[in-house]
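Case study B.
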Amino acid sequence: MAHEKINGCVVIKDLYYSVNDHTWIRLNDDGTVTVGMTDVAQTLAGPILHAKAKNVGAVREKGKPIAIVESGKWVGPIKSPVTGEIIEVNERVAADAQLLNRSPYRDGWVLKMKPSNLGADIADMVTGDAAVEAYRAKISADNLKACTHIEGTDEYE
Amino acid sequence: MAYARTGETPDTVVLSIPTEPYVCMGYHRSPGAEINLERCHSAQLPVIRRQTGGGTVFIDDRQLFVQWIFHPARLPRMVENRFRLFCQPLIQTYQFFGINAFFFPPNDVHVRNRKIVGTGAGAIGNAEVVTGNFIFDFNPEIMAGLLNAPSDPFRRMALEGMQQYMSSFRRELKTAPDPEAVKAVYREKCRDALQATLIPGEFTPEEQRLMAQLDEKFATNEWLFEHGYNHSSLRRLKIHANVWVSETTVTGQNGPLHITLRTKGNRIDDITFSGNPGLQPPSRLTGLEKVLTNVELTPAPLLEILEAFFELHGAHSPERTAEDWVNALLNCKA
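Model:
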């Protein structure tokens, strides 16, 4: 995967990012999108203990919670980067929530959605070099010194 | 208040003392998994599931709750740094009253190896919320009695763990200060920590409307049982970040072996074998529990102790090798 590291935080270039919500989507060939949380998000949250996604079939608007995660004693939502229907939930994450920490861009994807207005939703997102620059600015603004990675985290060289 | 937040809403600090006792579960907990709902019902204790994380706690009017309801941009982004900032005025307030409290990462406040503040946090509505409490007094017997403990040893270790590793104003000072005095000192320390002026405020009509609406939602069984009902007994209980009680069962030809452990860091703080341990002679069991206490929970020291004990006391367990005992102990901790 083409990627860049900013203060140790991995940004995969072929994903689309909602930088403020720290989520990403991957465009699948069948018109669906895979949704996940970013390396920065898992760093800010810390080791995640529980993750519970909304049910398959639920229709969510962009910006509404599609999953709730708990790390240590913090609970917060993963906000939907697109409007659409949830068509698949990653059961591996439900069974092992720290997969979100160890593999935010590979095995730790959260769910898949069938977007209903992808053209408009994606217009607010960034990808490629623009995503790298947006994250560089965000990491600097948030004064994030470095991303932290627990044992077993995916390697990106 | 978090849900009612708008761009104009000032950051808000709430100080409150519950008027009635209740049991409060963390967001991802299932009723039945940690506490015995029938006992709560018999004791007329309401059970509430909160929107922040953590375990299940018994709450009453001997605790003063502090809640920060802030714009997300005005709190540290890293959760650990957020807790560190939040705990600072709590610690300084305890110190003002003569208690040598200190921050215990990632999110506790300790005094003399004992936890004296419980904290929680969450992104709620348009706000980031951090909560914690001053503990004026604490009755471990009530909390231990409500646990859905799998065995008597587990309940005993939980009770003794809370007695040993939890503290309060009363425990440290032999008396509890006036809550109003604590509030006054806290307001000062909070102002210093946040470098902000604190202005007394009232709930807005919109906040009151949402509070009534959410009170209704949080009282429903749909909310309480959102994550299902867990019928299995508790197998792991956190006393504080460094102290846990756990229990495991190992099957055997002559019956199951139950291992109940309290760990402090990576060491055995207390241990009980029950069921059918299969140790010969059985009279050596207490001695085995004794020698394992304070031992590091890693394979090499455990194996060394077990082999030495078996040899020294002529003890043996036909069903299990020393390695089997080690694996069972490590499995209990995990």
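Residues 21 and 60 of chain B are 4 Å apart (CA to CA). The remaining cases will be described in the next quarterly update.
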